[in-house]
Amino acid sequence: MEVKGNFINYGNYVDVHDNENVYLTVGEDVKVKKQPSRFPACRNYTQGVAILEHLKEKGFVEKNTEPKNFLWQMECTEERPDKVKPIVWLKTKQLLREMLEQWFGRLLQEQSLNKVKIESLCSQIFIDKQGNMIHLSKNKPYPSADSDDLKDFFATI
């Protein structure tokens, strides 16, 4: 059997992402379909649309990123797209980390969400421009115009 997709080995099971579905393979024969991952709710629909448009305009995500898909995965809407696709992130992993920390700032501050959970979900939701799952690296703030842009924009939302 040929399986196409991205694999994450967790010891006793393997996550297989085929960009539409996520499967857990337990042992050698058992394959269980999981629902696609979503971040926890933090922003409303209007905020999500504004953030997506800004991310597109500034080249953080592809210009053809489908709003319905993005907003569902970021849990700004309950309207699930017909086909859930990973979000293509075009900038550095550090900028993705900064964007997510800005997005979920309130939840992080309240401690109802932690950075480990964000990192875990990120690898299931975002891919790079080569189609690889993104695993966030350690936080290494690096001054840049893009970093400043994210901070300034999220301050207005």
Largest sheet, strands/sense/barrel: 4 strands, antiparallel
Oligomeric state of the chains in view:
single chain
Proportion of residues in helical segments: 25-40%
Shape: globular
Tell me the distance between the termini.
Answer: 48 Å
Number of helical elements: 6
Category by helix and strand content: alpha+beta
Cα gyration radius (Å): 16 Å
Question: Mean pLDDT, as a whole number?
Answer: 84
Biggest sheet: strands side by side, in what order? 1-2-3-4
Domain count, please report it.
Answer: 2
Question: Which spans have pLDDT < 50 for at least 5 consecutive residues?
Answer: 7-15
Strand content: 5-15%
Order of helices and strands: EEEEHHEHHHEH
Number of strands: 6
List the helices and strands and how they pair.
Layout: E1 6-9, E2 13-17, E3 22-26, E4 30-34, H1 45-57, H2 67-73, E5 87-88, H3 93-103, H4 105-110, H5 115-125, E6 126-127, H6 145-156
Parallel strand pairs: 5-6
Antiparallel strand pairs: 1-2, 2-3, 3-4
Helix pairs in contact: 3-6
Question: Would you mind describing this structure in some detail?
Answer:
The protein is α+β, with helices and mostly antiparallel strands and 157 residues long. The chain folds into 2 domains: 1-35, no CATH class; 37-156, no CATH class. The protein is 38% helix and 15% strand. It has 6 helices and 6 strands; from the N terminus they run ββββααβαααβα. It has helices at 45-57, 67-73, 93-103, 105-110, 115-125, 145-156; strands spanning 6-9, 13-17, 22-26, 30-34, 87-88, 126-127. The protein has a 4-stranded antiparallel β-sheet, with no helix packed on it. It has a two-stranded parallel ribbon with strand order 5-6. Helix 3 packs parallel to helix 6 (145-156). Residues 7-15 have low confidence and may be disordered.
